[in-house]
Each structure stands twice: as structure tokens, then as C-alpha cells.
Amino acid sequence: MFDTLDGLIVATLLFLAIHIIPSSFLRAKLVDKVGENVYLAGYSVLSAVFLAWMIMAYINAPLDYFLWDLGNVGRYLAIPLMVLAFILFVGPFTGASPTSVKAQVVIDKEGAHQGLNAITRHPMMWAFVLWAFVHLLNNGDAKSLVFFVGFGGLALAGTFLIDVKRARELGPKWAEFKSRTSNVPFAAVLSGRARLSVKQLWWRVAIGLFLFMAAYHTHKLVLGVSPFPY
Questions:
Q1: Is the pLDDT of residue 12 over 60?
Q2: What is the pLDDT of residues 129-140, one digit of tens each?
Q3: Which of 123, 134, 119 is nearest to 193 (CA)?
């Protein structure tokens, strides 16, 4: 089931199921039985296994059924979107966020509302959403539609699932945090609920730009496809 479109669809559905089903109603029961650390370890292993299966199925599925080709339009759009994606990607590694795994305790810290969290309270998830969207724009075939809609759709759904879970866990503290941040990037800034700080952002932006340039210029070497406009 690694070399057909049907195999990719099955792998994608299982990848979605292993993330959505436990998060929706099974997590509490499983944690009660095995403990949170064991649950998280098992969840991580299963996620990695199904992701590897999904990637292998995508690589080996036939390149067929082309639905669109945006040409250079898609490649030029990809540049600013991927710059933003890489900047957001460094968020969890450079600042505390109560939306991260086992990081609820940082919700009382002022830094939880600042840095990249001022742009979105889910920087990592939105990095994945933008990455998937950009690659979907530039790969208009059927297997890419399945893979990138599945992956990006899960990341987008994850932002709402995490919000629901944290609201249940943290109550009024989460309500206060939510009022000072936004899910959609820049929504809190544009509404005046959050403020961007050059002091807190410039070095994070620099790291993101460095990672973008590294990925952009090694894309063909590593993946065999050039992202440059032609």
C-alpha cells in the first residue's frame, strides 16, 4: 500500500485518526490508565510511525491527475509565505507558550503573550499550515492534494483542539490569555489586543530568515526539485 493513491488516502486517514480521536474523547481515559508520560511517549511513537507511512506513501504514489499549475505565480507567492512559516516555526524553541506540550504552567508569565505568541498563540501549527498551503499551491496533482490537505488540515484543526483542551484545563487563566492573543496570525495585533516588539522579534526573525534561506537554497539538492521561479 505504498505505491498507489488509495494507499496514500488510507495512510492519511490513519494519520488524522491517530491525532484527532485521542484528542477528542479518549485522551483522559488513556491517561488515567497508563499515566501522562507513558501516553505521550506512545502517542509520539505512533504519530511518527503513521507520519513515516504517510510520507512513504506520498513519495511512491503515482504522479497523476493534475488539477492545476500556477507556474511562477505559485513560486513567487511561496517566498513570503515560507519566510513567515519559518519565522513562526522557531516560536516554541525561543519562547514559552501555554499551547505547547506540558507547558500550561507558563500561562502566568508575561512572556506567554509576547514574541511570536503575539502574532499567533499557535506558531508551530501555523508554520505547518503555511508550509502545506504553499506546497499545495505548487503541486496541483491528486496525491499532493491528499497529502498536503491532510497534513495542513490537521495542523489547522489542531489549533482549535488545543484551544478547547486548554480552556478545559486552565479555565479563567486561559480566558485571559486568549483575550490577549489570537489563533489567526496577526488578528490580535490588528485588533489592538497584542503588540509586536522589535526587541523581542528581531532575532527570532533573523533565525527564521536564516532557516528559510538554508532550506530554499538546498531544496533541489535535498529533494530534487528547485523552488526558484523559472
A1: yes
A2: 999 999 999 999
A3: 119
DSSP letter, residue 4: S
Residue 183 makes CB contacts below 8 A (sequence gap 6+) with 120, 121, 122, 159, 160, 163
How many Cα atoms sit within 13 Å of 174 on the Cβ side? 14
For 66, phi then psi, to 5°, come to -75, 130
Grid coordinates of 72: 511562477
Cβ-based neighbour number of residue 25 at 10 Å: 9
CA distances from 147 to 71, 85, 109, 183 (A): 20, 18, 37, 23
Residue among 182, 190, 186 nearest 201 (CA): 186
| Per-residue pLDDT at 128 | 98
**Residues comprising the chain, all counted:** 230
Query: Which has the closest alpha carbon to 61: 143, 136, 151?
Result: 143
| Contacts with 115 (C-beta within 8 Å, 6 or more apart), sequence order | 91, 94, 95, 197, 200, 201, 204
How large is the average pLDDT for residues 94-112? 84
Residue 144 has pLDDT above 80, yes or no: yes
Residue 24: which pLDDT band, with cuts at 50, 70 and 90? low
pLDDT above 70: percentage of residues in the chain: 98
CA distances from residue 161 to 24, 100, 164, 180, 204 in whole angstroms, order as listed: 8, 12, 5, 19, 26
Domain ranges of the chain: 1-62, 67-223
